[in-house]
UniProtKB/TrEMBL annotation:
Boundaries of every Na+/H+ antiporter MnhB subunit-related protein domain copy: 40-162
Protein name: Cation transporter
Entry annotated with the keyword Transcription regulation: no
Organism: Pseudonocardia xinjiangensis
InterPro entries recorded: CPA3_antiporter_subunitB, MnhB
Ranges that cross the membrane: 46-64, 70-90, 102-126, 146-165
Length: 183
């Protein structure tokens, strides 16, 4: 049995008419049709960038209060968890190409350097100061140096979430595949 035509050329089998044809829908390999939720996949495509932008907002605005980097990292991590739930390992690998240990190490390095730099100038470790600059298009811009520590914490939390998804998700998908083969 055939359904609608594929660009007016050859008929598409009925079982495959709803499979994605463009890379903007799904990247990489497609999950088994029985394991997919098209509504969740399409909603995730719309929500994922918005949640990441919100996490950057929390990172930039939260540096005046405690925990801006941590809360922003958790929100970004939840965006990656949602992306993983919607698309599985194949879709997740297309979104996140850096290795999780590199992200974790970068976050630790940024946080460590940010914490120790004040000691080089005779200030206590982890002390903060305000930097001000006059940017031509924006005007005067002020920045707290604690933002750099928050960026390090942000990278660390996102890296840990990515590593957990990689480690736990591979095991879950392997068990699902084994259960599917047994049936």
């Amino acid at each position: 049995m055939t359904s609608r035509l594929n660009d007016g050329r050859d008929p598409v089998p009925f079982e495959e008419w709803d499979r994605p044809r463009g890379e903007w829908l799904l990247s990489g390999e497609c999950r088994r049709p029985g394991d997919r939720s098209l509504l969740l996949e399409m909603t995730t495509r719309a929500v994922f960038p918005t949640v990441l932008v919100f996490s950057l907002y929390l990172l930039l605005v939260g540096h005046y209060g405690p925990g801006g980097g941590f809360s922003a990292g958790l929100v970004a991590g939840l965006a990656f968890v949602l992306r993983y739930i919607a698309g599985g390992n194949a879709d997740f690998g297309a979104v996140v190409s850096p290795r999780a240990p590199v992200v974790i190490g970068s976050g630790l390095a940024v946080a460590l350097v940010t914490g120790l730099v004040p000691a080089a100038f005779g200030a206590p470790v982890l002390s903060t100061t305000k930097l001000a600059a006059d940017v031509p298009l924006f005007g005067p811009v002020e920045l707290q140096t604690s933002l750099f520590l928050d960026v390090g914490v942000y990278l660390l939390i996102v890296g840990v979430v990515l590593d957990l998804l990689r480690a736990l998700g591979d095991g879950i998908e392997r068990d699902m595949d084994d259960a599917g083969e047994a049936l």
